[in-house]
């Protein structure tokens, strides 16, 4: 029990900076979408498109070496060789990548229709390269259980990023020059990323350039499938924001309108990220707990009970946000973005499916069938590309929202069916159906009885939140303490 508590404690320490960082970055959205910053959604669309590329590059540039490092660090006797070989490999690859990027920055900027701003491409490359290089020293801190130093570096980087954003955008930024704001955001991110390099400077100073080529190749062979799976996962999460502008332009729309659509969709997607942030916090605690329970004879009962609670919780977030969208919309400060609010319930529901899929995914991790995780991600990525290519030109960002829902729903079902074959856990589908069906039913009742779909009224507020309380009461009745010991 003490080892489990220790594991959970370490997980909380290492996970907290990431969760806090996502929350604080999440709360920068009201700043970016305010009347005094990016009032025009097209300007926010630029930031959204650039950071969609960051998501892809941050999968590629570390070469999967962070996960490989943890694996080989625990298996090999020469732990210094493991760190050196992986670290030097990542440093060398990123130096080459950045040099190529410098020479090609203008061509890339032309292709992305930012011909006047090749500096965006250079800064973007610098951010991802610095993050990729810093990943290994940060992983080394975790392997050495230096939780305090790890957290201090992470929190300092977060504070620098948020502080610089507030100063640059509120004090220095001129709203008449929106591209200057894009530059400031990228600079703030780069300086925050450099904090990690400064915080781990000893690993650079003490690095011995003794390279074990065979070990590095062995680690790369292990990490390559992880890169493929990671790419497929990012396709599902962010590719729509990359595809949207060129597809809409091909359909005859102006670049300005196309970027507006990217900006509106990205801002509204942030409201659905409430589920994702909850999910992030849950995953940091749940995964080590699940592995700790793997030798428990009653582990499946534990997994089933946790799934019941999880489904109830994410469905509560879904109706809580969806039925109070008239309040949550003020998180996006400018009304120019509100035309996309109707896709928020679709995206929330998609993230509910994603959360259930992640919760189920423990089966292939416990059984060692991790290849199925890659297959599911690749299949989802293919469907994402296909649906977006066909329907974005016809329906704009609404097609992307539905594509996200369809893919995450299919991944959830595929994971369940495969799990029942290779690592059966008899989840309580009736209870899952009750919570999910009740949440969806209450949502549709609210839409049917909607008194004023475009304005906030107190009558509407009390009616919607009465429906939410009804949902909470039903869940409490089904899961009340007196029933927790009942074998369901």
Task: Summarize this structure as a short list of keywords or feature phrases.
488 residues; mainly alpha; 19 helices; 80% helix; 0% strand; disordered C terminus
Task: Provide a quick synopsis of the model.
The protein is mainly alpha-helical and 488 residues long. The chain contains 19 helices and no strands.
Written overview of the protein:
It is built from 19 helices and no strands. By secondary structure, it is mainly α. α1 packs antiparallel against α11 and α6 (118-143) runs parallel beside α8 (178-199). The model is unreliable at 482-488 (pLDDT under 50).
Name the average pLDDT.
Answer: 86
Helical content (DSSP H or I, runs of 4+): over 70%
How many beta strands in the DSSP annotation? 0
Low-pLDDT ranges? 482-488
Outline type = globular
Secondary structure topology:
Blueprint: H1 2-26, H2 29-32, H3 41-60, H4 65-75, H5 79-111, H6 118-143, H7 147-172, H8 178-199, H9 201-205, H10 213-250, H11 255-292, H12 299-322, H13 325-328, H14 344-360, H15 362-366, H16 371-395, H17 397-422, H18 429-448, H19 458-479
Helix pairs in contact: 1-7, 1-11, 3-6, 3-8, 3-10, 3-11, 4-5, 4-6, 4-10, 5-6, 5-10, 6-8, 7-8, 10-11, 10-16, 10-17, 11-12, 11-14, 12-14, 12-18, 12-19, 14-17, 16-17, 18-19
């Amino acid at each position: 029990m003490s080892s489990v508590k220790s594991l959970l404690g370490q997980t909380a320490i290492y996970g907290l900076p990431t969760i806090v960082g996502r929350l604080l970055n999440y709360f920068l959205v009201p700043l970016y979408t305010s009347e005094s910053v990016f009032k025009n959604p097209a300007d926010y669309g630029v930031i959204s498109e650039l950071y969609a590329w960051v998501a892809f590059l941050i999968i590629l540039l570390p070469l999967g070496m962070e996960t490989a490092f943890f694996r080989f660090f625990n298996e090999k006797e020469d732990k210094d060789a493991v760190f050196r070989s992986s670290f030097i490999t990542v440093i060398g690859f990123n130096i080459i990548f950045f040099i190529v990027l410098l020479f090609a920055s203008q061509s890339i900027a032309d292709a992305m229709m930012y011909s006047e701003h090749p500096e965006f491409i250079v800064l973007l490359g610098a951010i991802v390269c610095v993050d990729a290089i810093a990943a290994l020293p940060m992983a080394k801190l975790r392997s050495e259980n230096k939780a305090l130093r790890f957290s201090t570096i992470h929190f300092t980087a977060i504070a620098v990023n948020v502080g610089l954003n507030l100063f640059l955008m509120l004090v220095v930024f001129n709203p008449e020059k929106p591209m200057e704001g894009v530059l400031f955001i990228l600079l703030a991110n780069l300086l925050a990323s450099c904090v990690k390099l400064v915080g781990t400077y000893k690993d650079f100073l003490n690095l011995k350039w003794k390279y074990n080529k065979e070990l590095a190749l062995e680690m790369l062979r292990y990490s390559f499938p992880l890169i493929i799976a990671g790419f497929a996962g990012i396709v599902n999460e962010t590719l729509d924001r990359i595809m949207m502008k060129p597809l809409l332009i091909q359909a005859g729309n102006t670049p300005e309108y196309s970027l507006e659509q990217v900006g509106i969709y990205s801002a509204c997607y942030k409201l659905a990220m409430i589920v994702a942030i909850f999910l992030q916090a849950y995953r940091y605690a749940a995964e080590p707990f699940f592995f700790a329970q793997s030798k428990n004879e009653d582990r499946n009962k534990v997994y089933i009970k946790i799934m019941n609670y999880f489904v109830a919780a994410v469905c509560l977030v879904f109706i809580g946000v969806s039925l109070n969208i008239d309040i949550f919309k003020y998180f996006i400060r400018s009304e120019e973005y509100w035309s996309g609010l109707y896709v928020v319930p679709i995206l929330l529901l998609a993230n509910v499916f994603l959360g259930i899929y992640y919760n189920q995914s423990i089966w292939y991790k416990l059984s060692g069938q991790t290849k199925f995780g890659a297959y599911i991600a690749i299949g989802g990525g293919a469907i994402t590309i296909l649906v977006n290519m066909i329907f974005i030109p016809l329906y704009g960002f609404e097609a992307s929202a539905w594509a996200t829902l369809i893919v995450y729903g299919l991944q959830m079902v595929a994971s369940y069916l495969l799990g029942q074959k290779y690592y059966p856990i008899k989840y309580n589908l009736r209870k899952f159906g009750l919570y999910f069906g009740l949440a969806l039913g209450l949502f549709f009742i609210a839409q049917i009885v909607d008194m004023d779909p475009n304005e906030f009224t107190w009558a509407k507020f009390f009616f919607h939140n009465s429906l939410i309380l009804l949902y909470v009461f039903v869940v409490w009745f089904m899961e009340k303490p007196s029933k927790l010991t009942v074998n369901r």
